[in-house]
Input
Amino acid sequence: AQSVTQLGSHVSVSEGALVLLRCNYSSSVPPYLFWYVQYPNQGLQLLLKYTTGATLVKGINGFEAEFKKSETSFHLTKPSAHMSDAAEYVCAVSGDNAGNMLTFGGGTRLMVKP
Amino acid sequence: EPEVTQTPSHQVTQMGQEVILRCVPISNHLYFYWYRQILGQKVEFLVSFYNNEISEKSEIFDDQFSVERPDGSNFTLKIRSTKLEDSAMYFCASTPGQGRTGELFFGEGSRLTVL
Output
């Protein structure tokens, strides 16, 4: 079984500031981890994913995340927030099977202040 | 860019009524999924579908739910007799192949409101 915990349902940063969105997971098998972004009235768009190999993965819009096995974490970061980054960010882990059943975290709403 | 499309974007129905939510997955994709998100809660897996049959389903996906691929393009979710607690955003997703690496391509969702 697997689960995902996102600390902080709401995060507010100033434009230009560092963005850090936290995600911790549990998985009975080596995890495959995903970050999705959801803009209002839109679907879930993949930001980035970790499967195997390099633990620092880069995604779209300047976001990156680092897989830390020892901490069971996959935190999402961006050096400098833009107003357009305001959205819901959802972390997910894939199922411990051959399929693509994802288990999602509760999401973090990022607000960017001018 | 190919995308998953869902209709309707919003449906309001009375408790006990049947609802069908429709999805057109990306054309060369083989695996299809329904997820739902109750307001303020996590996105939850409902069911996956491959080769005209259900491959996995969650505890949520009880006898009130069914899925179908009636033709070569549509993928539907039917709720036979809606309950208040079925009110949620329902997301369809597709992926080209099996395997845990799969990026799920999500539609924009269908919001179901049961009164």
Q: What stands out?
A: The mean pLDDT of chain B is 92. Residues 9 and 28 of chain B are 23 Å apart (CA to CA). Chain B has no helices and eleven strands.
